[in-house]
Amino acid sequence: MASMDPNSPALGSQPPRVADAAPRLQERSATADRQALTARLKEQAQRQGFDLAGACPAVTPTGLHAFYDWLAAGYAGEMQYLPDRREAYAHPRHVLPGARSLLLLAASYRTAEPAPPAAGSGRVSRYAWGNDYHDVLRQRLHAICDWLKAELPGAAARGVVDTAPLLEREFAQLAGLGWVGKNTLILNKKLGSWLFLAAVLTDVELAYDAPHQASHCGTCTACLDACPTDAFVAPYVLDSRRCISYLTIELRDHVPAELRPGLGDWLLGCDVCQDVCPWNRKPAGRENSPFAPLAAMNPVDLLALFELNDEGFRARFRGTPLWRPRRRGILRNAALVLGNTRPPGGIAVLSRGLRDTEPLVRAACAWALGQYPGDQAQAALRHRWQSEPDPHVRNELASALALARQSGHDISS
Q1: What CATH number corresponds to the domain at position 338?
Q2: Which of 69, 146, 162, 230 is catalytic?
Q3: For 231-245, how does the pLDDT look when each residue is reduced to its tens digit (9 = 90+)?
Q4: 70 in a domain, yes or no?
């Protein structure tokens, strides 16, 4: 008996019925629809000015327990909004009920190069040179969500920019945008780490991108080694309480004395761990960007800041990232920078700052004057000591005067 053709139907088998193929055809059609919708959604993101877009499922992030450990270690500092919403980070449905998919987005904020700070000026992190990125990106996200809802009436969608309980960097990696570097920032081979992240959450199932599996940091430790305040406990672990960005933006209290010299000339934020990253050498700056430096922001004249009252500060900085620490925080930072850099004219401005209505500002000015040698600074400290009512400011004045005695510049005797 001749052998049976291996490609022929088995004896007694029946040809496939049309009804059996229907589910497979429907599945293929649904997959094609998801792919088409996701492609068009990404096109909308590109039209709105985003440089990267990737889709991923709404799932529990893989780094959730590492985040919990980070909180438990106290590395969030005074950012109480993080532990207050600890459980909400467990799943995107806590941000959008019924969430099935996320579209992760990134916008580059690399524009001009930093200008060398002149005497009496302070550096501002690149991200803060222009208009507040929250305002810029929210407008873009609203447009994308409106488009999706128009395409699929009844669909739910919400856009978020680093204010919702969402581990954006985890999801950015899951959506294929890049990998998390040792400095804890998302890195992309073409755009580096100069990226604002945002997300659109929806109850629509999208076609998902492949996760970015590999890390391209290798044995490099440039970011860890360059940190002026040793804020990295280990690769991929940042103690915010030592980070210059945290100290100059999020911290509402006095900067710890041992960390003040590490601030150097940074008025707001810090870019050191990004400036030294090899992946940030290639990306070119962009012109006509909403994140391009506004007038007098790259760098900022510190001496002029002390001439601003609350209304003047609001008029100049409302709508920019410098508004977040408010006047008291920015003047605190400015005083510390003046103490670190000791430019001509600094003593007169800091002496004026000793009379500020904010104890936080007066305390920082007292410390800064203590960094200046000579009789003029010590005379200002001694004069303020006679009338200062705030206990913490008096402690700063006493410390500054004690430093003068150790340096041989005491004028009290």
Answers
A1: 1.25.10.10
A2: 162
A3: 999 999 999 999 999
A4: no
